[in-house]
């Protein structure tokens, strides 16, 4: 009897976590995709890895497409199953790499949301007005937004910061990015001021045995969570021209504003921790879009 699909999915997830060093979010997504395939095939009487073939996977993807899933989600599902199939073959759990010839649907790349400089100035003004020693939550919130915009880091990287990750002498943060890759990112004077105030006047008010070395902690003394940061950014951007959005918009904004200001594309790639320059180049498209919009609004013969 061959290995059951659901059991193989769990072992595959363990492999991604331990051997490949994938982030917990990626591991969970890939495992969910494989389990979704397993549930689909179970209805067809297919429960073992050795019974799966390429047509089964294509039927599953077709059903997912018909349900209205985004092209980017379908592309990820395809990548997950190709990786799963290759792992099965490598470990001699199947005779044929059944997904080797599986093609991913091309995902339509949408331009990222960018918060304008003017809107950000208003947001920082509001945060600064609320930040005071008797309001430690506001001190922490100001620092969180300052770091997100100053460094362009991901929200997972922000909440993962520890006290020892701060280089006070050079105003640099050591962040842990995707694939457990570390990189150094700079931050400016406003972020440094917010950091100093949070450390000296805010963090101590929440500090307890649960805090450990976490830089950003909540009122219960625990490490600040991703959901809390999402809620914070959404509340700050609600009602602005951008509309309520998440922390990634501040990462997009940092990259776009740097390029608008003349920063080198490869320097921005390093800052964001992109493995491919092509990923960073989308921000040049944002700048071109902005240029075109400005031209059409301002030029008399546009």
UniProtKB/TrEMBL annotation:
A GO MF term: DNA binding
Question: Pfam families attached here?
Answer: Phage_int_SAM_1, Phage_integrase
According to the entry, every stretch annotated as the Tyr recombinase domain falls at 110-296
Primary location class? cytoplasm
Spell out the subcellular localization from the entry.
Cytoplasm
Could you tell me which InterPro entries the record lists for this protein?
A: CB, DNA_brk_join_enz, Integrase-like_cat_sf, Integrase_catalytic, Integrase_recombinase_N, Integrase_SAM-like_N, Tyrosine_recombinase_XerC/XerD, Tyrosine_recombinase_XerCD
Is DNA-binding found in the keyword set?
A: yes
Q: Which GO terms describe its cellular component?
A: cytoplasm
Q: Which UniProt keywords apply?
A: Cell cycle, Cell division, Chromosome partition, Cytoplasm, DNA integration, DNA recombination, DNA-binding
Q: Does the keyword rRNA processing apply?
A: no
Annotated Core-binding (CB) domain ranges read 3-89
Query: Which example biological process does GO assign this protein?
Result: DNA recombination
User: What protein name is recorded for this chain?
Assistant: Unannotated protein
Q: Which organism is it from?
A: freshwater metagenome
